[in-house]
């Protein structure tokens, strides 16, 4: 059965991609893959690997053809760093900084310690209920 033109095109594209991947340095590709994941530990690992690869390129231990991928790795990692930093700061500002502006620094610290106190009492009540049970707790009250 003859294959379609699209099937031939996809097969040819797959062969070219696999040939390209096999001819690249493994750690350059690993750094590129890590830099594309927008979760802080992974793109920081990608930035670290990309920086090491850049150092190796500058010392002449990596070939010239890897330079573009190394720069792409570093730029994508820095972009993800700035993007997630902006997102985390926006979340922090939305949920915590508004309270500082509303009640001031002194009021914020009082509210923060009150929040910690309420959390600790909640944990204490949970542990007490867990070990004593509802029936025993009702008898003690």
Radius of gyration: 27 Å
Main sheet properties: none
Q: Choose one word for the global shape.
A: elongated
Number of alpha- plus pi-helical segments:
4
Helix content: over 70%
How much of the polypeptide forms β-strand, as a percent range? under 5%
Q: Give the SSE string.
A: HHHH
Number of strands: 0
Spatial separation of the terminal alpha carbons: 83 Å
Structural class: mainly alpha
Low-confidence stretches: none
Mean pLDDT: 80
Could you write a compact summary of the structure shown?
The protein is mostly helical. Helices cover 87% and strands 0% of the residues.
Key terms:
single chain; 141 residues; mainly alpha; 87% helix
Structural description of this entry:
This protein is mostly helical and 141 residues long. It is 87% helix and 0% strand. The protein contains four helices and no strands. The chain has helices at residues 5-22, 26-36, 40-58, 67-140. Helix 2 (26-36) packs antiparallel against helix 3 and helix 3 packs antiparallel against helix 4 (67-140). The longest helix has 74 residues, at 67-140.
